[in-house]
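Researcher: Hi, I'm a grad student and pretty new to this. My advisor asked me to get structures for two proteins we've been looking at. I'm not sure of the right format, so I'll just paste the first sequence and hope you can take it from there.
Model: That works fine. Here's the first sequence with its structure tokens right after it:
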Amino acid sequence: MKKNLIAALLIAAVFASSTANSAPPIFKERKYFGPMPFNSFSLNVGFLDGADFSYLTEALDNWATARNGYDTAKEMPLSPSCKLTYERKLTPNHVLKLSSTFTYIKQETGGEYVAEFPDTNYALTIERTIKVYLLSFDAGFSYFFITPEPARFSPYAGAGFSAVIPMVRLHTDSYLDGEPFSNPGENISQNSFQAGLHMEFGMTYFVSNRYAVGIEGKYQMAQSKFDIHNGNFDLKYTGMILSLGLTYYL
């Protein structure tokens, strides 16, 4: 009796196994992700144009004017920027992007004013330098309008959120009759943590299934506050970063 039961169970197991192998899979098969690998790292180098410190520089000029002087801002140069990005393909055309961007921003001013001290007044000449070491961490998605593959151009666009850390340094060189004058109250360092947004668009050429080169425009929206002379002023880092990039697919 037991032998018959065991034989019946073995026959049932073989039949169930053959039925399962011939039936369609329960879970959906993974989609084809195209000829390019899933993961990649890219390095972009370029310049930021559009940062604006006018609220601060105008306040510094008004402060000097109230002390029988002036403080004129020079034209802000282009700001060098570098971005390192990790990309993960979700479909042949959709990409998750995690990146870190470092940008160096500098603004210079110069002028003079009368500094009042308890015992006397000094007519000082000043040269100010406002430096911002801007670090941002971005997370977002991009879409390639043409499926990436070797020896092909593909435009893309994307957007996402940013965590921004501006490290602001104001350094003032003061001179009395052409000689350096100690004025430490005009040297200020401030750090903060801010939220931002970014949008990007570009064109990539896939040299092979391992390498790609491209040009990218990234529009970032971010700002912070800077405290000086009992005032609080906006420093705007909103602008366009135009860069060239090299991508390596793992």
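Researcher: Oh nice, that was easy. Here's the second one.
Model: And its structure:
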Amino acid sequence: MNRLRHAFTLIELLVVIAIIAVLIGLLVPAVQKVRSAAARAQCLNNLKQIGLACHNFHDACGAFPSLGQYGTAPSVSWSAHARILPYLEQENLQKLIDWNQPYSSQPVVTATRVATFICPSDINDKSRLDGAITHYPTSYGFNAGTWAVWSPTTGQTGNGAFTIQRGTRMADFLDGTSTTLAATDVKAFQPYLRDANNPAASGAAEPAGVAAMVAFGGSFKAESGHTEWVDGRVHQTGMTALWKPNTRCDFVSGTTTFDTDFNSSREGATSNPTYAGITARSYHSGGVNVLFVDGSTRFINDSIDLSAWRGLATRAGGEVANAP
């Protein structure tokens, strides 16, 4: 007797393969969305931990940590990130720091990866070799204000939550702690312009647009911004609200266009004032995560009005601004 053979026909097999392909096509974006949401949640938690650390520092020292402290001679300064280490369960790391010596002579500290300082979505979670020393980046910058950061000749500091030379106190936040930015996402290995010493005078007005800022010029660094969590300078551990989150600031070097930050004169490098366009940026779709001075965190869309964004960056500007 002939036996019947049960098997798929070629058409049936192709139909099954097509169905599986469609299901995979539907599943992959869903998985990516879940991963993105999880990364954004972890990023918010990192900012929350940084906020708690700053508050504990304030309780212990009577003020928030300064962005940096510089002498009259050319100098560098340890960052606010370094000063809050004990409140992030990194006391042993801070004990390695000799505050009387520059970080360039302390390679064990500079090369250490602090997980709380790295956004899980940042694609540049890696060290950077700078001559004989290795640095590790950060994905979070403290709010230095809108444009002017520091004038060493007049002592004037920025209008943000964190300032040069001295730390701010709760009483300094006349605009309210719940409506003043403390820190935001920034991108590690960010290109930037530096040391054009332009503008050179105190009280310079904010540039009218991105092109005007880039036109100030400077020495171009393709990938070293926000790569040194130990460095108190604004292009390494700070941000400013000169432009809305994720605003492109195009600068052409050779045949390549870079999305660029700007520091007119590095703090401690000269007697010229420091103006900065250090934009809040992230790999989160549509906006950035932010920390407010009261310790709350949230996501702010790129579409926020520029005047509202700048209003959130000032500690005592008198703006009537509600955090979106």
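Researcher: Is there anything I should tell my advisor about the second?
Model: You could mention this: Residues 40-313 form one domain.
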